[in-house]
Amino acid sequence: MNKVIPLLALLAAVAVIPIASAQVSTSSNYAPPDCRVCVPDWIKNNAGWWADGIIDDGSFVSGIEWLVSNDIIEVPTTAVSGTAESTIPGWVKNTASWWAGNQISDDDFVNAIQHLIKVGIMTVPQAEQAAPAMPAPTAAPSSSDSALTAKYNQVKAELAKCQEYDKASKVFLCENEFKGLLESVEYMMKAKKYVVGPMHYYYIPSQVIITPEGHSNLFITFVAHNTDSKNNSIFCTGPVACNYVITDGQKEWNYSTNTVTAGRLEMKPDVIASIDFSFGPPAQRHLERWNYDPSTEYFLKITEPFGNLNLPLELTVK
């Protein structure tokens, strides 16, 4: 789904800063305000995407600068050295990858951000900037599901109300909440629905990218909607303990990356969540790499406590 890359331009940036103004769950061992560095846990995976090169350096830096300057996030005061650098050192990306994988602490990663400020790669003006302009409104996607159409109109109205805030930082936080939900509902209106017990999965055909070396990389996005009256969870605790694999009916392949960062995504009643998986380079070296065979039919095998399904994958090659 196209929503991932544009949205990450700012979300990936926020992933690497210490104190978020919103009171949300954090990746720190202590709850706010006790943690010295309080980072929302939902943005850790975005830091990993930047480390993997999905988000470019310019988007990473400019996003952080805007968020810090508008007091959405804070960094300790850092003096700029007399020697400026023009590129982000490779070790900073390594640190982002380790941090996203919970191999180092939030404090350690903040040190890397302070280095970028110190060497002049990143500048943090103090005056509040204007919030990024919202894109021009587009017509609602058509859908035969009246409930989805009503949900789309409801979320769009909530997004429009965000402009009523008087501070750019509050506008940003409000828009950030509803933009993602609106894009998920738009996706659902265009997708095919698959029912697995109380969980409804919405899927649009995926694209396989063939590298110059002949390797295959597959990126799958689906939207899950918990229609139950109780909480349900999506489980993927590791490459060999994940309820989502690719299969051809005989063999199975494990994911490379995914956005179920905590290993379990608990969904309350009527909650909608967009989830991404990639398949290609194995997450662990002993696992077999998936490579696309155009003569083979592939499925996303779902084996959750609430139900099972082999979701047919419609794949196109780039």
Structure write-up:
- The protein is α+β, with helices and mostly antiparallel strands and 318 residues long.
- The protein folds into three domains: 115 residues, no CATH class; 44 residues; 122 residues, Immunoglobulin-like (Sandwich), CATH 2.60.40.
- 30% of the residues lie in helices and 22% in strands.
- The chain contains seven helices and 15 strands.
- The strands form four sheets. Strands 3, 4, 5, 6, 10, 12 and 15 form a seven-stranded mixed sheet that branches. Strands 9-8-13-14 form a four-stranded antiparallel sheet, with no helix packed on it.
- Strand 5 and strand 6 form a beta hairpin.
- Helix 1 crosses helix 2, helix 1 packs across helix 3 and helix 6 runs antiparallel to helix 7.
- The radius of gyration is 20 Å and the shape is globular.
- The relative contact order is 0.11.
- The N terminus is likely disordered.
Known CATH architecture of the largest domain: Sandwich
Instruction: Classify the oligomer.
Output: single chain
- SSE pattern: HEHHEHHHHEEEEEEEEEEEEE
- The percentage helix is 25-40%
The best one-word shape is globular
Number of domains: 3
Total number of strands: 15
The tally of helices reads: 7
Rounded average pLDDT = 75
Largest sheet: 7 strands, mixed
- The secondary structure category is alpha+beta
The first-level CATH class of the largest domain is given as Mainly Beta
- Radius of gyration from the CA trace? 20 Å
- CATH fold name of the largest domain, please? Immunoglobulin-like
Strand content: 15-25%
Distance between the termini: 15 Å
Low-confidence stretches: 1-40, 126-137
